[in-house]
Prior knowledge:
five-stranded parallel beta sheet
Amino acid sequence: MKKVVIIFRIIGFIIFGIIGFYLWDRFINLINPAFNILPYKLAASAVMGVVGFLSMPYLTLFPVQQVRAYLIKVSGQTLLLALIGLIIGLFIAALVSFPISFLPSPFSDVLPFVAVLLFGYLGVAIAVSRSRDFGDVFSFMRKPKHTSGDAASRFARDHSILVDTSVIIDGRIADIAKTGFIPGNLILPRFVLNELQYVADAPENLRRQRGRRGMDVVSQLQKDRNISLTVADLDVEGVRDVDEKLVVLARQMHASILTNDFNLNRIAELQGVHVLNINELANAVKSILIPGETLPVKVIQEGKESGQGVGYLDDGTMVVVEDGRKLVDQEIVVTVTKVLQTAAGRMIFAKPGGELEDK
């Protein structure tokens, strides 16, 4: 990068030096011809060369790099719409410029240029600002290439949520869906259901039980008339991984993904897909406690540190009780001393004692 900057500075020194030489030769005669001698020309050329050496990267290389970095972040659809909007804007400017050219000078010379700038900008701005609407029109008009039948196009216009296997096996989706906090239609692709069936038929006992519990959850969701769950024959050709299929389908359908899988969560977000994570929802609705508050908790086991006991609240929040080792299997009142937020969730540190507040 430094070498490229140096090359541009040298080019700027040469170009601006030549410009300084000829500008001095052309305009100095209008002021004082006595200064139009070679030493003064070389001095003017050197001054302009220094200006070009310092400013050339800021006039050429750095702006181009900023534009390139911006264009990398912009989607291909937005660039295409911007180009179409620019072409339409320039076409309208050409139509407007024709009658303007019959106006007296200087209007006939200035206004056509103003019309090109104005309508070109308006064309690009309108096309980019309405890109979502144009994308919906195009996606509605064309048949999806990688989906089976017209199922994807049928769900694309709805607020659809693709359901991952991890959420079905987890089971909490049934209770959450009953509360009405999940907007839109739950879509269970056939390949996700096949993966769930594969887990339910696994030789390992624990894995098989988890798969069967997932099948029971699907059945429970289907029986509930207040929950919109559709098992759709959606697939992606040329892709074998289930997570990758979900991401591709979500992008095609403008849908969200409901998952508990951390890796799928990250991959989907990197590709611009909205993710609904039940673990994040569970952490968000856990009780908010501050140091000094009291609460009842049952100490069920010893902690990692010496003398500590561990209990859990109804929402699953871990409570570490100081000097609670001797209180295992007892329900006591504790006073919160510290609340720690970790990647795994919220952890509460407390000490025995205190009185429960009336609520």
